[in-house]
Amino acid sequence: MKAARFDYFKPADRAEAVRLVAASDGMGKFVSGNQSLGPMMNLRLAQPELLVDVRGIAALRECRHEDHYFVIGAGITHAEIEDCRIEDVTQGLLPFVAAGIAYRAVRNRGTVGGSLAHADPAADWINVMRLLDAQFLVSGPTGERVVASDAWMAGAFTTALEPDELLTAVRIQRLAPTARWSYYKFNRKPGEFAEAIAAFYDDAASGVCRAVIGAIDAPPFLIANASPLLERDDPALLAQHLEHAGLEPGSYSYQVHRVALERAARMAREYRRTPQ
């Protein structure tokens, strides 16, 4: 199938992009890498009357240091993160995750902002940004605002964005040299969306040790204090967190998430820093 008829604009700046979508009476969509919306339009699952292409907006590709944070522009591609063409402040976590997203052709065009705005529960960035407690920078007709990581995703494919708001960047903290991390994703073959995701971030110096259980048809489930999971193998504790995440004991989804959480915990325990 082919997409239904639509109008197309490629504005020069954020203000014009927001104005175009705001004037579309809810029928306009922002598009960047078009790795998610495009297939949906071809299947007629989405039929926007207006596409506003934000790829040419330089401000969406800016990366900068801001106080204790590092800001990554929404227009940065997965491949640019994979290849370390932007600074890595996560001790290798972001490049590792980026390298496992779909295929290289997808990573060349797909963007961080596009993935986060699409909010597929099985996508990588939506889970990583929850793990890192990221902040989302949003621009709309009434100005700019910041959305906390726990408020970003309301449900599958649903975010805190208003229809006429644009995600412009994501802000993360620099991981300390003492930090360790792990990220485990289960999919049947490379390129597919994950059936289970588990990740840990632990930094004893700052007192942070948390984990996420992802790809659960809901926002990522955060384990705020994951230290006990890293201290020992505890099947009962694993089961408790999996059930709190909404997974039904004995189900296929429960089993693959249990394995993902076990392996992510083991990876974090065995973490070895790559020499710089």
Helix content: 25-40%
Overall mean confidence score, pLDDT: 93
**Total strand count, please?**
14
In the sheet with the most strands, the strands line up as: 4-5-10-6-7
Shape: globular
Count of helical regions? 11
Beta content comes to: 25-35%
The first-level CATH class of the largest domain is given as: Alpha Beta
Measured between the Cα atoms of the first and last residue, the distance is 49 Å
What would you call the structural class?
A: alpha+beta
Indicate how many domains the architecture comprises.
3
Please write the string of helix (H) and strand (E) elements. EHEHEEEHHHHHEEHEEEEEEEHHH
Model regions low in confidence, pLDDT < 50 over at least 5 residues:
none
CATH architecture of the largest domain: 2-Layer Sandwich
Describe the main β-sheet briefly.
Answer: 5 strands, antiparallel
**Which fold name fills CATH's third level, the topology of the largest domain?**
Uridine Diphospho-n-acetylenolpyruvylglucosamine Reductase, domain 3
Oligomeric state of the chains present here:
single chain
Rg result:
19 Å
Task: Write a compact overview of the structure shown.
α10 (235-244) packs across α11 (252-269). This protein has helices at 14-22, 37-42, 78-82, 93-99, 104-109, 112-118, 124-131, 149-152, 227-231, 235-244, 252-269; strands spanning 7-9, 28-31, 50-53, 63-66, 69-73, 135-140, 143-148, 153-155, 158-159, 166-173, 180-186, 196-203, 208-214, 221-223. By secondary structure, the protein is an alpha+beta fold.
